[in-house]
Model the fold of this input.
Amino acid sequence: KAGVTQTPRYLIKTRGQQVTLSCSPISGHRSVSWYQQTPGQGLQFLFEYFSETQRNKGNFPGRFSGRQFSNSRSEMNVSTLELGDSALYLCASSPEIPGNTIYFGEGSWLTVV
Amino acid sequence: AQKVTQAQTEISVVEKEDVTLDCVYETRDTTYYLFWYKQPPSGELVFLIRRNSFDEQNEISGRYSWNFQKSTSSFNFTITASQVVDSAVYFCALSETETDSWGKLQFGAGTQVVVTP
Done:
């Protein structure tokens, strides 16, 4: 069974640009969530999508957005990039039943210069 | 407010020693789930164990064991007979259910485990 797949793995962007990250969940998983990991703030929840609807949102500015498609694949977008957006962005997927294991992808390493 | 606290920043051990990682959580939910993840330098969060709030039976899985105590809101994790491959950052995480937010994990700050030969 394929795991959670994130693309791209590494990318470098310039301040002011925007970036789109993609996540393909494990087959059959309908919940997809995104996390940002930085050395200073640790692992922080960005948002969660379930059946194409955003169900939860973390405390991030509106520059961070996401969406989920009918096949459960998800994308997150960061507009007007700032240096502080440099981070590892992790995607996770899980089945719809509470308490099931939440599986993570390998992450996308974003560097903003 | 921080809901998951991992007070140990780094633990260094020699191979074959046991390592116990502490985790204290805070929640008002009666039903919740606790997880431990391992993060090697590659970045991927690898699932290790999960426990639900209504089952306090402690278990052992291979070299891993955990001690869940609701009375003290603790969910400690032990690696027995550590190996160099166990070197990684370990995260404790909480999933709360009563606000329909079970898909959201709240993580502790992580504990770096260094196992030397």
Notes: Chain A has a mean pLDDT of 94.
